[in-house]
Amino acid sequence: MQDFSLFFELGWKHILDWQGYDHILFVTALCGTYLIKDWKKILILVTAFTVGHSLTLALSVFNKVLISSSWIEFLIPITIVITCIINIKNRQTIRKNIQSSYWLALIFGLIHGLGFSNYLKSLMGKSNNVVAELLAFNLGLEFGQIIIVFSILVLSFLLVNMVRVQKREWNLFISSAIFGISLIMAIERIP
């Protein structure tokens, strides 16, 4: 149980680490265009993302998938850029095709999971309890993502409901800002 709590803590601390802010940017772009009333949709989106990165994280830890880390580090900001483009394109409409968003979150989760794999492999070493540690780490990641989502939803609520910023303007602002940061990140990481 001690290892479980250690890896759970490592998971949520890793996701909330400002030095690895690309994941924070992705989760923010993924859910930043929704409001609190959309919490079920957001929960499913974030869970689809978690399923994707949990799958590739496990495959990578067990050495079933090996992809150059330079390509993964380049593709992660590309996933953020694409998410922002979709948000900006849909800024004046409510997302009608939410199912495609779930699939996209799942696919992008596959890429992000590979980004965590080297970090997790270095932590696990030659552990005999890989499955439990992997589960704990993934649950920690999910917990961290929920903290990010909650923070963004509170900020969205305050801006849209209290300050009276138009929802479409908030969407344009947050998506454009994240787009710019991620595009620069992608250019800097071209393999």
UniProtKB/TrEMBL annotation:
Keyword Cell membrane annotated: no
Organism (species): Pedobacter puniceum
Record key words, sorted: Membrane, Transmembrane, Transmembrane helix
Lineage, top ranks: Bacteria, Pseudomonadati, Bacteroidota, Sphingobacteriia, Sphingobacteriales
Annotated Pfam families: HupE_UreJ_2
Name assigned to this protein: HupE/UreJ family protein
Parts of the chain that traverse the membrane: 20-36, 43-62, 68-88, 100-120, 143-163, 170-187
